[in-house]
Amino acid sequence: MANTEPSRLDPQLQSSSDVTVFEDESRSSRFVGAFTRNKFLFVGLMLILAVVLFAVVGSTVIEEERTNWGYANAPKIRPSSEFWLGTDQDGRDILAYVAYGTMGTLWMGLIAGIIGIGIGTLLGFFGGYFAGWIDAIVVILSDALITIPGLVLLITVSAYMDQLSVEQLGILIGVISWMGTTRVVRAQVLTLKNRAYVEISKFNGQSDLEIVIAELIPNLAPFIAATFVGAVGGAIFLSIGLSALGLGPQNEPSLGLMAYWFIHRGAVPQGLWWWFGPPIALIAVFQVGLFIVTAGLDQIANPRLRTSV
Amino acid sequence: MTTQTMDSPASETAQDVLLRADSVSKTFVSGTFRKHYTQALDTVTFSVPESPPTITAIAGESGSGKTTLARTVLGLIEPTSGEVVYRGVDVAEMNRAQRAQFRREVQVIFQDPFESYNPFYKVDHVLRTPIRRYNLASSRSESDDIVEAALRNVGLRPEETLGRHPHQLSGGQRQRVMVARAVMLQPKIIVADEPVSMVDASLRATILETLRAMKRDLGISILYITHDLTTAYQIADNIIVLYKGRVAESGSVESVINDPTHPYTQLLVSSIPQPDPETQWGREQEVRDEDEIALTGCNFYDRCPVRMDECTDEDPPLYRTAENRITRCYRYADSPVHHAPDLRSVFVDATSE
Amino acid sequence: MTAATSIDAPLVVKDLKVYYHTRRGPVKAVDGVSFELNRGERLGLVGESGSGKSTIALALMMAHKEPARIEGGSIMLNGSNLLDDNEERVRLRRLSEIAMVPQGALNSLNPVMRIRDQVIDGLKDHNVRMGIGEFNGRVTELLASVGLHPDVASRYPHELSGGMKQRVSIAIAISMNPSVIVADEPTSALDVVVQKQVVQTLRDVQERIGAAAIMIGHDMGLMAQFASRIGIMYGGKIVELGPVSHIFNNPKHPYTRLLISSLPDTRGKRRLEGIPGLPPSLLRPPPGCVFHTRCPEAMDVCMQDIPVNRELDERRFAACHLYGDADGREVAA
Q1: Half-sphere CA count of B293, side-chain side, radius 13 A
Q2: Across the strands, what pairs with C16?
Q3: Which of A146, A225, B81, C243 is at a distance of 20 to 30 A from B295, taking alpha carbons?
Q4: CB contact under 8 A, A19 and C20
Q5: Which residues have C-beta within 8 Å of that of residue A169, sequence separation ≥ 6?
Q6: pLDDT for C147-196, tens place per residue?
Q7: Mutate which of C31, C69, C94, C113 to disrupt the A interface (most A C-beta within 10 Å)?
Q8: Residue of chain C nearest A309, judged by CA positions
Q9: Of C24, C49, C109, the CB nearest to A17
Q10: What is the mean pLDDT of chain B?
Q11: A152 touching C (Cβ < 8 Å)
């Protein structure tokens, strides 16, 4: 009831007809502007950047041998000038191990994210754009696979493979985690493909493939980016869970493996905070950063959340 | 121009028919378990000749099937039965080369000039892409010339239009760029689906005049889809009035609008808000008797103020009430039944201006 | 414009200014608009998109939202300024003194409430107290006044057609016999046949309750059918205001003239002429007369001075440099 509830009048709809602001900014500068203006995006990226920087700098500056079993003769020592974050029960330098472990985990997440997004986006576009039997296959496949719990599948697979590398785990996670992406991308394409501009491009002589690449993908880019960020975060979480159960890569440092050891060796009941503290803090900062970035990208990708006129 | 096409049963000679919708019907199905069928279009047949160019209005309210007819003719949806034939080939069965030619020669202007643009690109994109795809230019400068000429053609200054994003142009400018795009491709037919309904009054006239000039100067035929009989009257030669997917009345636009015979057309015409305070709407109230929906017979029965008992017997045929008129109403049962299915057989030739 | 007694003029708007505050400065959507509305009168406010017409509707209902702000002027409703009232007082005056019929395209009815409850809710919100039987009687009466069957009361909005929904909106708008009805494009997105019925219904109930009405829109044909006076808006200002017959038969402002001559009709085919050029940017309006960039009769003075509003005939005003002291007396904006 407009009379009693003015809030029900859609101010966007009403004001849009009156405010014709002829913007002079180009799209690229608007996009850059969105990055600097969007506080979510900025803060989130800073958090992620801090973690990435730590991993990259740490793993270049610190000698790799410090992550070796028995590097220090003194296990479980508190942070000191020689071992800034102390050592674990097996005499590894925790600072070094955390740096290399973060690197390994990030690398794994990236691989998983790229593969998951790649398969997911491709199938989503095909299913959404070319309806009919192609779509049916995509929907049946993704619906069937999404019902299988990823962790159970991974546990089964990695229990069979006695040695898993970080890369292999990344690929494995990517291959089983594209279904969510497929679903959302397909839904987006379904709403976009009946837009007048997609139909106009048919009359402009563009082929279907060209329409997907030149007309649809650019408009979904921020959306795909947001999904990608989410996928990397999900993959990292999954890998940590798997490794903490002792089913991840055993020979290369990762945050998950570290978690496995500190759980296994009872670091928490022993009160060895310098051992379990740093990986937990890093994981927390990274995940919070990813979450905030996703929220920020969502604001850009989803015009309904945009607040400015 | 001669009136050849008028005298001879033009629609039957295949040579000069460019596009023909042949008994086109479309039924939409919705629902997964309990299917719901909506007949949007019911055996509509008409054709567009190669020459002379004509403007044909397809008019009706929402739900009349006018947009379905437009989209079927454009090959965007396939008819449930019947076929759309372009240059002698069924649109649904075209090979690659035929389809490319069809896509270029039968162009479109949509209602919403904003939705017609990909928000990611500048307006240039929608003009340059077809030049590339249809190989209209051999060099970049030739492409520039084509784009600029097309924009000037619709009264736009290229320097004020190119290099901008769609949201930086006004609604009228955006729609004129879409007109420029369609004309640039030198099509044979343009299907314009409510091209001015979202454009401000002061620019409406400009766009309509451009459409008229296209027919006159460039020999392009236009199918003008509209709910607005005033603009149809101004630019069209002939009109097809659709009601619930069926042709209610058809003929030359001047005779249909100035002297409507079908009660539905009469209702539409009397509802026109004339921009003249001295010509006020009549006070007649519309009949709408939901209990009286006839399961057989005339589909306008429930709303008809002059309905008769025989109207529920069966669907009235089209009666030829005059040289250039047919109407689907039993009140004209004295007139001969019109048998030629192609509506073009009653159309007047394009007025040469 | 002219001072009128508040008994005759339930609504007097003076020098109203509504600006949208954007990052790049104020957008002057409504920039010094004045008009008055007498009892029983129907004013049509016509303009293109960007002329400020919808913003006026929102401001009259005090339903404008950030970044829009009323920067100046007054809205005298039944003799007291709406802009001086607090939020609660404004809420109570809405519906009881000034009511809105929303855009036809906007679904302003609550989808999960029966029509009866929506009508009664509005009344209860305004402290109307009566028994349930009386309420139901009132609902039936209101629905009948807009030509709807009493059964409609127990239906939900999705069970009604667009035209019926808009009639319900009219019934709600008149439920407390307001002295002013504001209708913002009430028939947009409705078919012509339904459009006619809705506008006629609006006109009938407005006459019956003796309210003043403002219809905002862009369709001159609809205005000719509905309004007794017409205000032509351009670039945030009313450039011409007068009785409907004057506006159509003897337009004075060049914009009005061009607008009238661009209208298609069904009385013979003719060349259609639009208005060249573009509407002005309200962020950086042109100096002088806002229309001078498109005006075929623009003179040097038009590019420098803002034209004053003159009363050219009785109750007919135009703001244009073509008219001087000899043509009509100057009235305060």
Answers
A1: 4
A2: C33
A3: B81
A4: yes
A5: A108, A112, A158, A239, A242, A248, A249
A6: 999 999 999 999 998 899 999 999 999 999 999 999 999 998 888 999 99
A7: C94
A8: C22
A9: C49
A10: 88
A11: no
Greatest mean pLDDT among A29-43, A288-302, C187-201 lies in: C187-201
Task: Choose among A9, A13, A15: nearest Cβ to C20.
Answer: A15
Stretch (H or E) spanning B56: strand B55-59
Q: How far is C123 from chain A (nearest CA, A)?
A: 9
Contacts of B31 (CB under 8 A, 6+ apart): none
pLDDT of residue A3: 39
Asked if A10 is an interface residue toward chain C (Cβ–Cβ < 8 A), one would say: yes
Best residue in A18, A197, A206, A309 to probe B by mutation, most B CBs within 10 Å? A197
Q: Which two tokens stand for residue C191?
A: 């078919």
pLDDT in tens, B92-113: 999 999 999 999 999 999 998 8
More confidently predicted of A103 and A2: A103
Q: What percent of chain C has pLDDT over 90?
A: 71
Nearest by CB to A206, from B76, B120, B133: name it: B133
Per-residue confidence (pLDDT) for residue A12, from 0 to 100: 29
| In chain C, alpha helices (H) | 53-60, 87-96, 115-125, 132-145, 162-173, 192-209, 220-226, 244-249, 254-261
B107 closest CA partner among B69, B155, B74, B148: B74
Confidence bin at A85 (pLDDT 50/70/90): confident
Identify which of A1, A11, A13 has the shortest CB distance to residue C121: A1
Q: Name every chain C residue with its beta carbon within 8 A of the beta carbon of A20.
A: 49-50, 279, 281-282
Per-residue model confidence as pLDDT tens digits over B8-48: 444 444 458 999 999 999 999 877 777 788 889 999 999 99
Q: Which of the residues A192, A203, A224 would you substitute to probe the B interface, choosing the one with the greatest number of B C-beta atoms within 10 Å?
A: A203
Number of Cα atoms under 13 Å in the Cβ half of residue C241: 24
**What is the reported pLDDT for A229?**
85
CA distance C200 to A231: 58
Ramachandran bin of B155, using left for φ above 0, alpha for ψ from -120 to 50, beta for the remaining angles: left
Query: Given this model, what pLDDT does residue A16 score?
Result: 34
User: From the DSSP assignment, how many helices (H) and strands (E) are in chain B?
Assistant: 11, 12
Which residue on chain B is closest to C226 by alpha carbon?
B277
pLDDT average, residue stretch C281-294 = 89
Q: Which residue of B has its CA nearest to A20?
A: B170
DSSP codes, C27-51: EEEEEEEEEEE-TT-EEEEE--TTS
The packing angle between helices A39-61 and A27-37, to 10°, is: 80
CA C294 to chain centre: 25
Q: Greater confidence, B162 or A299? A: B162
Are the Cβ atoms of B273 and C262 closer than 8 angstroms? no
Tell me whether the omega of the peptide bond preceding residue B305 falls within 30 degrees of 0, making it cis.
Answer: no
From residue B301, alpha-carbon distances to C78, C115, C194 in Å are 49, 29, 18
Is B259 in the C-facing interface, judged by CB distances under 8 Å? no
The DSSP element (H or E) to which B263 belongs, if any, is: helix B263-271
Q: Which candidate in B120, B134, B173 is best for mutational testing of the A interface (most A CBs within 10 A)? A: B120
The size of the B-C interface in CB pairs under 8 A is 127
For chain B, give the percent of residues with pLDDT over 90.
Answer: 64
Nearest-by-CA chain B residue for A202: B103
Residues of A in contact with C68 (CB under 8 A): 11, 15
B1 has pLDDT over 70 = no
d(CA C174, CA C172): 5
Counted across chains A and B, CB pairs separated by less than 8 A come out at 60
Q: Do C23 and A308 touch (CB under 8 A)?
A: yes
Q: Which tokens sit at A121?
A: 């986006």
**pLDDT: which is higher, A153 or B267:** B267
